[in-house]
Structures are given as C-alpha cells and as structure tokens.
Amino acid sequence: MLRIGQGKMKQALFQGTKKSRRLARKSQGGFSLIEMLTVIAIIGILGSILIPSITGLNEVSSKLAKDRRNAQNLTNVFVSAQVAGLDFLDPGSLENTVQNIVDGGVPNGGVFAGHTFSVPGLSVVEQQRAATYLAIEHGMLVYNADIGS
C-alpha cells in the first residue's frame, strides 16, 4: 500500500538518482584527453632517456665483438702460417708478433708456396685492441676471450 508521503520520497530519490547517474557516467567514461596526453608525454620522455643508453651498449658490445674477431683472425693466420713454414713469432714482443702477422709473408716452398698469409687492413688501434685477447705461450700465439675482459 502506497501512502502519500512515500510517493514524494520516491520522486526525491528518483531526482537524486538522475544526478548520481550523470556523475556515474562521467566517472565511467574512461580517460580524458589531457590524461592521455600526459601519459604519452611521460612515455616519450622516458623513451628519450632510455634509447641512447641502450644504443650505446650496442656500440660497445659490437666493438668488443670486432676486437675478439680480429684476435681470432690473427691467431688463425699465425697457426696456418706456421703449418706452411712461416714464423711470425717474436718471443719477446706480442706487439711485434701481431705486426708481423698483419704484414704477412709468403712461403718459398712446399704445398703453400706462393700463398700469402696475412691479416691486411688492421689499423694500429685495431691491432692493439685485438692484442688484449692474445698471449704468447710456449712459442704459440694463443687467443683467450677472458684475457681482455
């Protein structure tokens, strides 16, 4: 049974409900344009800080890989030249041994006669950096990746 006072209450509740519905719609609508632009700006700032540092790491690792590759090439040519009868070793100087390999040589006789053994095109700086991964042990040029690290 509906009384007179109850009908007015229901009307007041219904009107209050309209207002709360509008507020609810605003809060359920998602993000505003300003909020989205703020988030995009923050992501852009963080990206501009992080990308150069990541790129710098890639450059460093590629230089290290190049130095190790050069050291391996020097060792391979050294061993191959020894098999062919050439001796690039300067027992007292790693620097001179590396320079001898870069300059290269040609065996006079045997199966490898006329074949050039060298690592052309290495600059002095590349030779020095590659030499950090090399050592002379028991009359041999030895590559060791742990030496330069």
Write the layout of secondary structure elements.
Elements: H1 4-28, H2 33-84, H3 94-103, H4 124-131, E1 134-137, E2 140-143
Antiparallel strand pairs: 1-2
Helix pairs in contact: 2-4
The structural class is mainly alpha
Q: How many DSSP-defined strands? A: 2
The run of helices and strands is HHHHEE
Q: Output the radius of gyration.
A: 38 Å
| N-to-C span | 90 Å
What does this structure look like?
- By secondary structure, the protein is mainly alpha-helical.
- It has a domain at 66-143.
- Helix content is 64%, strand content 5%.
- The chain has 4 helices and 2 strands.
- The protein has helices at 4-28, 33-84, 94-103, 124-131, and strands at residues 134-137, 140-143.
- Strands 1-2 form a two-stranded antiparallel sheet.
- A hairpin with a 2-residue loop joins strand 1 (134-137) and strand 2.
- Helix 2 packs across helix 4 (124-131).
- The longest helix is centred in the middle third of the chain and has 52 residues, at 33-84.
- The model has no long low-confidence stretch (mean pLDDT 82).
Give keywords.
149 residues; mainly alpha; two-stranded antiparallel sheet; 2 strands; 5% strand; rod-shaped
Short recap of the structure:
The protein has 149 residues and is mainly α. 64% of the residues lie in helices and 5% in strands.
